[in-house]
Design brief:
CATH architecture: 3-Layer(aba) Sandwich
Radius of gyration: 15 Å
Oligomer: single chain
Number of strands: 7
Helix content: 25-40%
Strand order of the largest sheet: 3-2-1-4-5-7-6
Largest sheet: 7 strands, mixed
Structural class: alpha/beta
Shape: globular
Strand content: 15-25%
Number of helices: 6
CATH superfamily: Vaccinia Virus protein VP39
CATH class: Alpha Beta
């Protein structure tokens, strides 16, 4: 059950964004300038629904590949009290905005936003943790990626690496059906959850 006071804070910090709650996820990508992941904010309600679908708990550690304005990372830390949440975002303004929101929500000790290319930064971040190769430092990996991004061998390898080491992979808007060998365990509207079990 989500704490009402925390839900109100989440609503307030993202209230300036224009959202159409009837369309749960952004689906029109005309004019989007990106090669892997577009910045199209997901509605607050849909963020909560996606995090609920993947059964986020306080024991989870979350990685958002292309975190935009940070709403999945902030939502996981604020509403679901995850142990740690990390967002990788190539746009320095969005990464800075996300850090500012984390301070505003008083969860800066639980979140980290890294500015840079998601393919390079995910590997660098993981290497810095000195995690053994058989386990993932993240139990949940969130990806809002364009379908053609799945053709990127390096990205496919990154997602499969997390998947095979036990992370639950959450695909937003576009499923990851083009990446073979991943077991779909839950689906609702525009969210797909994969886990090898």
């Amino acid at each position: 059950m989500i704490n009402k006071a925390k839900a109100d804070i989440f609503e307030q910090v993202y209230e300036d964004h224009i959202e159409n709650e009837e369309n749960n996820f952004p689906v029109f990508l005309d004019g989007t300038d990106t090669h892997l992941a577009p910045y199209l904010p997901t509605s607050k309600r849909s963020v909560i629904e996606a995090l609920s679908l993947v059964n986020v708990t306080s024991n989870d550690t979350v990685l958002d590949l292309g975190s935009g304005d940070g709403r999945f990372v902030i939502g996981a830390a604020l509403l679901f009290d995850v142990a740690k949440a990390v967002g990788i975002e190539i746009d320095s303004d969005l990464a800075a905005q996300s850090n500012q929101i984390a301070f505003q929500c008083n969860i800066q000790h639980k979140v980290q936003f890294i500015c840079g290319d998601l393919l390079e930064e995910a590997k660098t971040f993981e290497d810095s943790l000195n995690e053994p190769s058989y386990s993932s430092p993240f139990t949940i990996v969130i990806a809002f990626l364009l379908p053609e991004a799945e053709d990127n061998a390096q990205l496919r390898e990154l997602i499969l690496s997390y998947y095979h080491r036990g992370a639950r992979i959450v695909a937003i808007v576009f499923d990851l059906a083009n990446i073979p060998g991943m077991k779909l365990i839950a689906h609702h509207e525009s969210t797909w959850v994969y886990h090898k079990g």
